[in-house]
Specification:
Distance between the termini: 70 Å
CATH topology of the largest domain: FAD/NAD(P)-binding domain
CATH class of the largest domain: Alpha Beta
Low-confidence stretches: none
CATH superfamily of the largest domain: FAD/NAD(P)-binding domain
Structural class: alpha+beta
Radius of gyration: 23 Å
CATH architecture of the largest domain: 3-Layer(bba) Sandwich
Shape: globular
Mean pLDDT: 92
Largest sheet: 8 strands, mixed
Helix content: 25-40%
Amino acid sequence: MPTPRIRNALVLGGGFAGTLAAYVLSQVADTVTVVDRDRFADEPTDRKGTPHARHTHALVSGGARALADLMPGLIDSLLAKGAQRIGLPDRYLALTPYGWFHRRPGTQYIIGSSRRLLEWTIRSRLPDGDQLRFVEATDVLGLTGSSAAVTGARCRDRATGEVIELSADFVVDTTGRSSQAVDWLTELGLPPVHQVTVDPGIFYTTRIFRAPDEATQDFPAVNIQANPALTTRSRRSGVLIPIEDGQWTVTLSGAPGSQPTLDEEGQRAFAASLPDPTIAKLIAAAEPLGPAFGFRAHANRRRYFERLPQWPRGLVVMGDAYATFNPVYGHGLTVAARAAIALRDGLAQHGADGTQQIQQSIAAAADDAWTMATTQDLRFPQTDCPRPGRAARLQYAFQDWLGRKAMNNPTIAEAQIDVFTLSAPATNLLRPSILLKALRTPHKDGLNTPPFSDEELRVLDPTPS
């Protein structure tokens, strides 16, 4: 049965999640209006309203497949524009607390791309003509309607201060972490929304580099993870991802007391202080392209809208307005893509009146990423939240046991990568076949050094031997 048409749809926020929502709604709505506090350029660019957009964004394969399902051909378009398909673990060298992963072919991957290229490629899929309208440089003040149904939003033009009401049959809030949806709903008479925050206190810096001439087109990504089992309070990590135009995006992160600085010398020193000096050696061989940018990472925060006993018709909340994640895990883009699939499928199944069911599906799309981020962050003493109890410590012991087994068993490693890329549920790691293989696998660490090829090693040390 075809989805009933929506006359007027309204998307609050035109970032990554908002663009996906606008695309979904353009398939079922006569008109779609997108409200954003920024103005949109006619070319790929970083917007003022998304200061974190300059930092490394990895689209894991679970999200890439969701986008390909939503917009067929999109990933091919990204790759044609220079984005990189980085296979896991054959082109992704990862240092875990248990050693370096072995390189081997796999079915999962990440897409290395700047945020501006990714958003621009997605925005180019939006329809032309009168169906889609952008209301730019405009703030959202609140929702209109009642506790039973949302009928639009109150907005204010940033230049003139004029307040206008935009009416709609269907509203999607994608205004990001700054969303006031919790307050807007209480103003409509709904009860308070339960919220949970797990703040790792991470600060990170990113700089773009021109890859050295010795680096081939398929040079691997490098990820050096922090080790929660160390007795020191340091939480330092770094990641280098090849992106378009022969560039590397390098992000260094640390918790209070061990934060990276923005100056070039300080960044090099910080990279050298990581559990392995590989990233420091690589950026020493590369050419910096512009300054470094710093950002205080958003805390993991989740708003449980789906638990309200009553949910208004005509409203959905998705993207960072619903849940935010520690960016070091690279799951935010994928959760937004999965939420867009939930929106599309929910509209097809329940229609525009089924917003409560759609909101529940959006919540389910975030569950695994939320569990992974918060469970890992709770292991570090710097994280601001109640300390985990005995049950959590037993869970950590199991994670360490299975993680070490994965170093020497490709089946376990592949299962972990499936979960990390949000391509399989976390419960897959509890399958009897996986546990049996873990019991039969030697309990020893992975590689002591990163598994570069001889050609790749020349990038780290181009001096002839």
